Amino acid sequence: EVQLVESGGGLVQAGGSLTLSCAASGFVSASYDIGWFRQAPGKEREGVSCFDFRGGSTYLADSVKGRFTISGDNAKLTVFLQMNNLKPEDTAVYYCAAGPFCSAWHARYVEAWGQGTLVTVSS
Prior knowledge:
Layout (H helix, E strand, L loop, with lengths): L2 E5 L2 E4 L4 E8 L7 E7 L6 E7 L5 E3 L7 E6 L4 E6 L8 E8 L12 E2 L3 E6 L1
Parallel strand pairs: 2-11
Antiparallel strand pairs: 1-3, 3-8, 4-5, 4-9, 5-6, 7-8, 9-10, 9-11
């Protein structure tokens, strides 16, 4: 059974930075891509970023390109989302997720979810 444990959310002022971590267990690195979705109040859950443990490729949504960076540690099956220059519109619950392909990073393909961590960006 795939398990995903997030950490690192919190409150930050606009322009600040946060790093989210997701520790995965219950599978080998070649089985899933790991990444992040977020959901703001009243909005749909959207794909933010993804890391492919097999080849090291990544996906970043257009809304976060140039500000967010995703990386992974194969040995620890842990993914990190470095978020810089945060904006109030980044406020959301961020969910770690496991899916088959970063190239198809949509909630309908996700096979396991973390519990979510709240990120609040004040203006």
